What we know:
Elements: H1 5-10, H2 13-21, H3 28-38, E1 43-46, H4 53-67, E2 78-81, H5 88-101, E3 108-111, H6 117-123, E4 130-133, H7 135-141, H8 147-150, E5 156-159, H9 162-165, H10 169-184, E6 189-194, H11 200-208, E7 217-220, E8 227-231, H12 251-259, E9 264-267, H13 271-284, E10 292-295, H14 301-312, E11 318-321, E12 336-340, H15 346-353, E13 364-369, H16 375-387, H17 401-413, H18 419-427, H19 437-449, H20 451-454, E14 463-466, E15 469-472, H21 475-484, E16 493-498, E17 503-508, H22 509-513, E18 520-523, E19 526-534, E20 537-542, H23 562-576, H24 583-587, H25 589-598, E21 606-614, E22 617-623, H26 628-645, E23 651-654, E24 659-663, H27 669-674, H28 683-690, H29 693-707, E25 714-715, E26 718-719, H30 722-739, H31 744-757, H32 760-771, E27 774-779, H33 787-796, H34 802-828
Parallel strand pairs: 1-6, 1-7, 2-4, 2-5, 3-4, 5-6, 8-13, 9-11, 9-12, 10-11, 12-13, 16-20, 21-27
Antiparallel strand pairs: 14-15, 16-17, 18-19, 19-20, 21-22, 22-24, 23-24, 25-26
Helix pairs in contact: 3-4, 4-5, 7-10, 12-13, 15-16, 16-23, 17-19, 26-28, 26-32, 29-30, 29-31
Amino acid sequence: MQPSADIASGALEPVEGWFRAKGWTPFRFQRDAWVAYLAGRSGLVHAATGYGKTHAAFVGAVAEALNEGNPGGRGVRVLWVTPLRALVNDTVEALREPVAALGLDWKVETRTADTAADVRSRQRDRLPDVLVTTPESLSVLLTFANLGDQFAALRLVVVDEWHELLGTKRGTQTELALARLRGSSPRMRTWGLSATLSNQDEALSVLLGVAASTAGVLVSGDERKEVVIDALLPDAVERFPWSGHVGVGMAGAVAAELDGVGTALVFTNTRSNAEIWYRALLDERPEWAGRIAVHHGSLDRSTRRWVEAALAEGRLRCVVCTSSLDLGVDFGPVDRVFQVGSPKGIARLLQRAGRSGHRPGAVSRVTCVPTHAFELVEFAAAREAASDRRVEPRRPLPKPLDVLVQHLVTVSIGAGFEPEALLAEIRDAWAYRDLSDDEWRWALDFCRSGGETLQGYEQFRRIAPFEGRYVCASNDIARRHRMSIGTIASDASMTVHFLNGHRLGSVEESFVARLDRGDVFQFGGRVVEYVRSDGMKAFVRPSRSSKATVPRWGGGRIPLSSELSAAMRRLVDAAGRGPTDTAEVEALSPVFEIQAAWSTIPTVDELLIERAVSRDGYHLFLYPFEGRLVHEGLASVVALRLARLTPISFTLSYNDYGIEFLSSEPAPLEGGLAAGLFDAEGLAADVEEGVNGTELARRQFREIARVSGLVFPGWPGRPRGLSQVQASSGLLFDVFERHDPQNLLLVQARREVRERQLEIGRLEETLARIRASRLVIVDTPRFSPLAFPILVDRLSQNRVSSERLSARIRKMQVLLEREADRTIALQRS
Length: 829
């Protein structure tokens, strides 16, 4: 798209003058976005991290206001939606700078759960000119009776980090809110910002809605940011590695790298690992106390803000963090990023790499740290895919009805709605573009009466007809609903406090339930001793103990992306063909040497199947290299189909690379292959039967019941416990199963299990790839290097002490190493 000269020379002159005064020159994509906005267009800005997407989206609205004589005080003119509350303060500062410099009479404020109560109260009557908010708080704004007046002057909605919302229920919630605003704000334009998306055209259509899906403009930055992806190699790679074996043993190497770095972020994939790595680095460098910090979403907000401010000011040399710092307006002082463990996806690694060198022209560098040896292949595969720009797409969700039900109640609280008008509005949201009349009537009736099974209970009759419109049925329902708005579902958590009341953060209720008085655990980088619980609060005191457990939080099951899986298979193939120019693969040459000697190294068009016998029984190993979640579904299907041929039971184990089937007698593999072991026919039914789909659906229904408002999570300061929420959702699930088995929320629960937990789409693709591959079946005299980590994963699931388990694994490893030495000696003699 070429800029319009007449617009650029007029309305844009003040903002370009401000750029010149700052010593900046606008990038072409920034100017293109400004021109498109001033021409009345909506769009998506896709550009590298650190190149000024914020200014690209916002400055056009500033130029428009200046051209119109600096109008202000008429309600919201710019609405900025961000996925993380942690970004709100940085965003506000970034937006206030041009507003103040160019003399606009605009107020820039926030509206989130963290906003002071008096500010939120004032905003009910008059919202500021520029409002920075989150999807959840935006939905709360839709309950205002004066919504039309408040947003009548709205010109611009910016959805920041759109790739983080796309493909999630929060993204669907945002789609519905945007559709609502389009109805009350005729001059509104919508712009999304993203740095890591491959399906940009689809993302743009989802953002703008059905009616405007082909009218938007995609503005892409030509500037390609240089990203360096490398890895720390262990001093020695054992030929029989296992998951977590390297782990914090690399802390010394990381600390040595940090010695030469000004400021760094060390990313882990889970909050537990963030705590563990913080302690490990501090043990390596005790003198860093006060200059190293931990940051994750379970820490108290005040602690997180202190860490963010200290990082921005350069007072910290290292922060160990999770995805809580994946995103951000500007972390200028960060010189280098470390990724502990597999990133599981290319987009995630690039996003984290972009936290360093977060400015135009600077190099971003991420150094990957293996927690087990085979992750070195993943690192090299991620670098190859990133270099080729093979980034994962983010697919939008198909009409989640729990989000729709919540939205209907939300809209009813404000001025209410006319069903036909609201249906047209909802169908303009991309997720609901093919919402059927039957589905619409079901959702409306479910909110009005509770459906066939719940119509006798008043609390489920949430909307009611009134003078041709539907309105909220009662003030009590409205209050409860406002407290429940949102789609983020997690296990019930308890807040952690010192005895003086100071809050540290939150841990899951299930963790506290296992604690006895005097137990010691690490939280927020501190070692604390559990004292007592009071309701949903856990009280602790400082401890000097050198041994402490670490809380475990849910949400650690990150799937391996299909792009990264494919890249791994290519590199494994290359390793089997001889020396490569990839340092990480060459570091694993002792592993691949034994794998080739005892079995084989599969090529990209082969599926390796190994069989072995031990004192534990008969082992069957498959190596699809498709990721743990796909392997979970594949393992259940294969086991079920083999058991149909002959009575046989399996113990299943799997990791990101392969699957183990352990049985007391040989598996009927040849018979299974002849009977269509990897056929797609009947796959969905076999998956549900093989993994106990009803129980998985029951668990998934907890989230759906919470989002749809069937289960109330509790009032502020008085949340309901996990057992209460589980009991309520479980009871509703059983009622629907028995009396309303075609309830659309039950149908959704089963679909989400197939699509989200078991990745049925990828499983179908995997089976198709396997059917097109050559099957290589090898009977191995002992466990191969590929089999060993899967075997260890199974053993670690047994209830034995970590010391006993480590001793057994080490003994097995020593025996295998001896056999490997003999094999190599024979080959070289």
